[in-house]
């Protein structure tokens, strides 16, 4: 196929040139015959055409060119005709060369406008597509670099904060700057709590990196989502009681069977329930589970202290902080929702958030286990 294309491109200009030569020769021969006949029958009358023919014959006789002049005229006309045939191709190639030079210089917004058909048109269009894809890759790379810089900045800040506290209180202990054992224990407790914050941040960073780099392995099994949610809610019993929050469950009677990694999903719903406890100011936290099309849907609803609408598109970003009125000194890493979204995405699911003046809803949609697959698993 490649050899045929190469032969085609090599022979095409020659074919056009031969065609131009034949066309000019035929036209020249016919025109010569017509003018000879015209001169033979109209030489005695004169006129502009007859005078021109006489001048040409006299010029040819005096210069001695004769046939050579004919060949010269045919050659010139052949080159002119060949250029007219190939003009659009030549102009298009010149445009492509000029445009690619500009693209190579960094102008990826340059678009090649080709006014011809065939392979030259295809070449120009393909270069435009490559340029557009390269531009998109460049934009994404710049975003990635900016994200990396922001990540380093945020990590440095979040690591420095607990480290500063730990260093400060341990320094006071080291210098014996405490009144009694009670104050000593107080300093030790603060340093311990700050070290736990540091541990949470580091663990979350490792987990987020694994999830986003697809280097994490999902151990998927068949799970009854309602049973999993009941187990998680039971584990939060003490926190609900201490925060004086009443949990209300509204679960569908449908069997919500999914294929997922239970340990990873536990992390998802623990994060969402923790958020509801930390940031909700109402007396209730509601959890809904129901079927919607081919998805199992879980809504975690907290009341009061809404998320501003302008913040909603960014709450799943790494280290993104919602306005200060929602941020408590809770020892969070700022990565919980980013990890949650990554885990849900790995399971082929969707997560989003809605918030108004009354409540905030985190909605998780996970694909239900296909009945055909389920039956095959049973049969095997």
TrEMBL record:
It is found in: Cell membrane. Pfam families: HATPase_c (PF02518), HisKA (PF00512). It is an enzyme of class 2 (transferase). It is a multi-pass membrane protein. GO terms for molecular function: ATP binding; phosphorelay sensor kinase activity. GO terms for cellular component: plasma membrane. It catalyses: ATP + protein L-histidine = ADP + protein N-phospho-L-histidine. Keywords: ATP-binding, Cell membrane, Kinase, Membrane, Nucleotide-binding, Phosphoprotein, Transferase, Transmembrane, Transmembrane helix, Two-component regulatory system. The chain crosses the membrane at residues 7-31, 68-85. SUPFAM superfamilies: ATPase domain of HSP90 chaperone/DNA topoisomerase II/histidine kinase, Homodimeric domain of signal transducing histidine kinase. PROSITE patterns: HIS_KIN. Coiled coil: none annotated. Its EC number is 2.7.13.3. Residues 154-370 form the Histidine kinase domain. This is histidine kinase. The lineage of its organism: Bacteria, Bacillati, Bacillota, Clostridia, Peptostreptococcales. The gene is phoR_8.
